[in-house]
Amino acid sequence: MITIRYFASLREQLGKEQDQIDSADNMTALDAWNRANTGTKPPDNILVAINQSYARLDSPIGSGDEVAFFPPVTGG
Amino acid sequence: MSVLIKSAAYDPWQVLADFQQQRFGASAAYGATAVFTGTMRDFNEGDTVKAMTLEHYPGMTESQLEQLIDSAKSRWDVIDCLIVHRVGAINPAETIVVTAAWSAHRSAAFEACRFLIEELKHNAPFWKKETLGDDSERWVSENTPG
Lengths: 76, 146
Fold this sequence. Notes:
The structure holds two protein chains of two kinds. By secondary structure, chain A is α+β, with helices and mostly antiparallel strands. Chain A has a single domain, classed as Beta-grasp domain (Ubiquitin-like (UB roll), Roll), CATH 3.10.20. Chain A contains two helices and seven strands. In chain A, the strands form two sheets. In chain A, strands 2-1-7-4-5 form a five-stranded mixed beta sheet. Chain A starts with a strand and ends in a 6-residue tail after the last strand. Chain B is of the alpha+beta class. Chain B has one domain: Aldehyde Oxidoreductase, domain 3, CATH 3.90.1170.40. Chain B is built from three helices and nine strands, in the order E-H-E-E-E-H-E-E-E-H-E-E. Chain B has helices spanning 12-24, 60-75, 106-123, and strands at residues 3-6, 32-39, 43-44, 47-56, 78-86, 88-90, 95-103, 126-132, 137-139. In chain B, helix 2 packs antiparallel against helix 3. The radius of gyration of chain B is 16 Å and the shape is elongated. The interface between A and B is medium-sized, with 17 and 27 residues.
């Protein structure tokens, strides 16, 4: 199982905070996005984290991972 | 603890005094302290802003900020650093963020303090949502360059 989390404007646009999907061999963060959001491309400026560390859309993921998608950060 | 996430209004100077007392006590190990505080404005991009909500990614936020402090300590000869950041509902004139660095001499403290706030703005997972004067809401899409 893979947990997908969404934050900020992206969470509001998608209308959901998270998804749970089954893992498969050779999955990337983009694969997880596509499986959870069929027909919706990730925004160009999307940021990706895997297990709370920055990653990329083509970064590999596996069972038990937490993948997060969010827009550019605006703290401080 | 050198990273504090605050869900209610705080006095930055009291937090700094408390940290300094706890960390250094009566020791004179440092000769320089550099501090940046960021305060919520009541305007942005030409509009009145009357409230704001700060969202964050619990867990990742703290680990990112701790990594920034580790980076600052490895790059400059600083004795310690502090980052405080507000989350949740916030009003104009309230403090959003504090970065501070302590060192023997001023150069390291100044540079580390600047590094912490600039890196925080680019990397720490926080997001601002503004409530404007007409009660409409908008997400801040990007930080100002400086």
